[in-house]
Amino acid sequence: MADAVVDYDEALTRYDPVMGFEVHVELNTDTKMFCGCATVFGAEPNSHVCPVCLGLPGALPVVNGKAVESAIRLGLALNCGIAEWCRFARKNYFYPDMPKNFQTSQYDEPICFDGYLDVEIPAASGDGTETFRVEIERAHMEEDTGKSLHVGGATGRIQGAEYSLVDFNRAGIPLIEIVTKPIEGAGDRAPEIARAYVATLRDLVKALDISDVKMEQGSVRCDANVSLRPIGTEKLGTRTETKNVNSLRSIERAVRYEISRQAAILDDGGSITQETRHWHEDTGVTTAGRPKSDADDYRYFPEPDLVPVAPAAERVEELRGTLPEPPAQRRKRLQSDWGYSDLEMRDVINAGAIDLIDESVAAGASPAGARKWWTGELARRANAEGKAIDEFNVTPAHVAELDGLVKAGRLNDSMARQVLDGVIDGEGSPTEVADARGLELVKDDGALEAAVDKVIAANEAIAAKVRDGKLNAAGALIGQVMKELKGQADAAKARELILVKLTS
Amino acid sequence: MTDYTRLTAAQLADALASGETTSVEVTQAHLDRIAEVDGAIHAFLQVDAEGALAAAQGVDEARAAGEPLGLLAGVPIAVKDILATRGLETTAGSKILAGWIPPYDATVVTRLRAAGMPILGKTNMDEFAMGSSTEHSAYGPTHNPWALDRIPGGSGGGSAAAVAAFEAPLAIGTDTGGSIRQPAAVTGTVGTKPTYGGVSRYGIIALASSLDQAGPCTRSVLDAALLHEVMGGHDLMDSTSIDAPVPPVVEAARRGDVSGMKIGVIKEISGEGFQPGIKRLFDESVQLLVSRGAEVVEVTCPSFEKGLAAYYLILPSEASSNLARFDAMRYGLRVGPEGVEHPSAEQVMAATREAGFGDEVKRRIILGTYALSAGYYDAYYGHAQKVRTLIARDFAAAYEKVDVLVTPTAPTTAFKLGEKLDDPMAMYLNDVATIPANLAGIPGMSIPNGLAAEDGLPSGFQILAPATKDERLYEVAAALEAALHDSWGAPILAQAPALAGKADN
């Protein structure tokens, strides 16, 4: 049975949403957090395991130094303090996919604490962007669990399953969990800010090159906490935690849904149950998970098998020197370099195309051309097929080459799109596709002129309109000329020729 | 013909090096001895005759080929069943691990193999090393070779009894609160708990991670030093392992010179509450050291009286977490709950842990789970850690004044099997003198210092040194051992009764 919901805009007239996010980022280290096993994704189940990550009796963890440095770099980029001395802690609970029945994590001594991340959202005025600051409570290191596969049930969840399989390849993969402070003051922008926060964090992690940030593979996983309080009150309402919301669009939708759902309960005089909730992508709703209390007792205590992590101050400063340009600053610089309008830049950001355009331009594409291909053609296809724009077998080098072919006058737009089809189908580079498919603009002016003359003669009525100054009518003639030349004509040239013949 | 089971490891090493005997012969002699007496002692849970003889033959061949070999190459050894041994069943004395064949070796075992030491088998112990008598072994108790109706100490009673009964010249033990030293004391053998981090814990099934430490069980001080040197040293697989060379223990054991050393007697553990015979022997041993040139100083360690309480919070807390992995999901025992047709994973976990753990293990898991619970953590675990710091400070202050500290190892000689089984507190009190070293991470050693007048059973003398100064243990122990041998005319085990099956003398 579907939960009652209140219209979102109406809910916001009475309630003030407060959010909080826990984002887990899988690091791209070569080896696991506490052992030497490889971290490759998609390998044969239980093929990357050892006594340590299987939790065999007697095995001991050893900290992956690269993972610690990744955590410190992320902390610095999030404007956090870096602990001079901190420990791992054991989070004790029983679950079949957790080899030791405790997770080695951090508790009251996180490696990074007290930071912030500025996120940009479109300005309320509709003009330009505005900045919203999300305060970061902490970022800490931990290991991932194994992965359960529940077989035989209808839902893929444990309820109703006949049996379950566990793959421990994921057990021990290094994670950083980034926890925000309560995000207040978002008002009706809450869902947008939620999305912008995760997107900005994702971009930052990507720029740091500490994760492959593939949300669809679970390398970035977001839990969204939402609560409502009556407008004008201070006390935080009871929150729900929607687990594993794993796309930017879903984050926005899930927050929006929770606001509407909780408002309905509160309007009815009910109270919110503190619980985890599951997000359902298909129906766009959340459903109840397990009850959760603040006093969930994980019996944390400092991990006695590991020595404290005490990064030297000089090393932290060295790492600070390796930080990339902050994404927001980089975006401003690129927008100015590329000469994009605010609106164009927004489309580029929304399409997640900044890096691709940057690389395309570096490979020789014009900024305008690169933008057109990535946020126009490829983003359209991505939307239609539910893919990411970088999943089409098309590289920045391809885009640069394609753009070059258009600029050189070898291809027109429609031919370039056909070439792109070929590239996507794996037929080779744009030049190879164009050659193989025999796509080339007619360069022979004589052939073009003959076609123009033929079309004018055959369409006297339209030609007369053009002569009378109705220049728009020339379009119909251009179309005929293109048809005559099987699409391989330069439309601009054809237009020019038609106008010369009919109006001068 | 020489009975090679009666020689020390150092003597065996000489006989092997000189070509007087072979490792196969020595190993076979010990396997024969095990076959004869272990029915009465039950020191071993597993005997690996095949593996031991194969290793022995390998060493003999290497020696014949003139390959460079370690000092103890060819000398067989027994290993406590808490160390993972590749291909050889490892149970930690628990039913829950019955049949578990580790796919890997503990670092200590790797080092024994690399040193060419044939592994005779796995020795009995209290389940998961929880106990002071081996009566908590799921596979039945070990019997003290001095008196078969008495306990051999614990948890490493199997290792100590194997050495005392001449079933093995050497054994590996582990010591979390006295599990090497107290069995040594009650069986008339030598046992060392090295500095925490001095010997790798990798592959040793964890009881309490911050307290556990493996060490040698032997019949002589020099043997302990030789084995300590093989076992010890930095290991990249154990983050808490000390990145420094093994202290010069063999040198110290060969020297045994206490002249000018300051030896501290701890006011709080100087004999009060100890069996009279043990107290008398302790005082005599101190005087023997004085006669060899040491100076005796009384020191006070006021926090020690809180040590036992702190220990019994820290140990169960860590153990409750370390033992969580025994859940039937990946290895070991699996038991389905009775009368449940399609049990959940959680039900199988619960049923398996109910069936697979003994009472003492359950008692400590419950204690530890409680002590770590939200709302109790500060009062119990947190507070115990503070006591631990205070004890370390007491030691630090004492070592400002003295080079080593000495105490009786255990308050009583071996008690009778069953005597304290239903009184956990009485059992726990056995460890009162040994626990502080584990809490502070310092090295400790027990050597036999005589037979108590009232019952004729062995007594132990404990030496404690500052962290990483393990060589001081051996310096003092070797001096005392020499003085005692002078007065006895032979090692103490010469006075042990003969065991059934073979005339010992």
UniProtKB/TrEMBL annotation, chain A:
Which SUPFAM superfamilies would you find in this protein's record?
Answer: GatB/YqeY motif, Glutamine synthetase/guanido kinase
Q: Name one GO molecular function term.
A: transferase activity
Q: Cite the Asn/Gln amidotransferase domain residue spans from the record.
A: 355-502
Q: Which Gene3D superfamilies match?
A: 1.10.10.410
Q: Which UniProt keywords apply?
A: ATP-binding, Ligase, Nucleotide-binding, Protein biosynthesis, Transferase
Q: Which reaction does it catalyse?
A: L-aspartyl-tRNA(Asn) + L-glutamine + ATP + H2O = L-asparaginyl-tRNA(Asn) + L-glutamate + ADP + phosphate + 2 H(+); L-glutamyl-tRNA(Gln) + L-glutamine + ATP + H2O = L-glutaminyl-tRNA(Gln) + L-glutamate + ADP + phosphate + H(+)
* The keyword Mitochondrion belongs to this UniProt entry's keyword annotation: no
Q: Where is the signal peptide?
A: none
What's one Pfam family here?
GatB_Yqey
What InterPro entries has UniProt attached to this entry? Asn/Gln-tRNA_amidoTrfase_suB/E, Asn/Gln-tRNA_Trfase_suB/E_cat, Asn/Gln_amidotransferase, Asn/Gln_tRNA_amidoTrase-B-like, GatB, GatB_Yqey_C_2, Gln-tRNA_amidoTrfase_suB_CS, Gln_synth/guanido_kin_cat_dom
Question: Which SMART domains does this UniProt record tie to the protein?
Answer: GatB_Yqey
Tell me its EC number(s), please.
Answer: 6.3.5.-
Gene Ontology biological-process entries: glutaminyl-tRNAGln biosynthesis via transamidation; translation
* Record's subunit section: Heterotrimer of A, B and C subunits.
What PANTHER family does its record include?
GLUTAMYL-TRNA GLN AMIDOTRANSFERASE SUBUNIT B MITOCHONDRIAL AND PROKARYOTIC PET112-RELATED, GLUTAMYL-TRNA(GLN) AMIDOTRANSFERASE SUBUNIT B, MITOCHONDRIAL
The UniProt family comment states:
Belongs to the GatB/GatE family. GatB subfamily.
Q: What does this protein do?
A: Allows the formation of correctly charged Asn-tRNA(Asn) or Gln-tRNA(Gln) through the transamidation of misacylated Asp-tRNA(Asn) or Glu-tRNA(Gln) in organisms which lack either or both of asparaginyl-tRNA or glutaminyl-tRNA synthetases. The reaction takes place in the presence of glutamine and ATP through an activated phospho-Asp-tRNA(Asn) or phospho-Glu-tRNA(Gln).
Name it: Aspartyl/glutamyl-tRNA(Asn/Gln) amidotransferase subunit B
- Organism of origin: Flexivirga caeni
Q: What is the lineage of its organism?
A: Bacteria, Bacillati, Actinomycetota, Actinomycetes, Micrococcales
UniProtKB/TrEMBL annotation, chain B:
Reactions accelerated catalytically: L-glutamyl-tRNA(Gln) + L-glutamine + ATP + H2O = L-glutaminyl-tRNA(Gln) + L-glutamate + ADP + phosphate + H(+)
Any one Gene Ontology cellular component term annotated for this protein? glutamyl-tRNA(Gln) amidotransferase complex
| Pfam family of the protein (one) | Amidase
Top-level enzyme category: ligase
What superkingdom does the record give?
Bacteria
- Supply the EC number(s): 6.3.5.7
Identify which residues the record assigns to the active site.
K80 (charge relay system), S155 (charge relay system), S179 (acyl-ester intermediate)
Which UniProt keywords are given for this protein, alphabetically ordered? ATP-binding, Ligase, Nucleotide-binding, Protein biosynthesis, Transferase
Q: Which residues form the Amidase domain?
A: 25-473
The record's Gene Ontology biological-process terms are: translation
Q: How does it assemble?
A: Heterotrimer of A, B and C subunits.
> What family is reported?
Belongs to the amidase family. GatA subfamily.
* Task of the protein: Allows the formation of correctly charged Gln-tRNA(Gln) through the transamidation of misacylated Glu-tRNA(Gln) in organisms which lack glutaminyl-tRNA synthetase. The reaction takes place in the presence of glutamine and ATP through an activated gamma-phospho-Glu-tRNA(Gln).
| Protein name (record) | Glutamyl-tRNA(Gln) amidotransferase subunit A
Instruction: Tell me the organism.
Output: Flexivirga caeni
Which gene is this protein's source? gatA
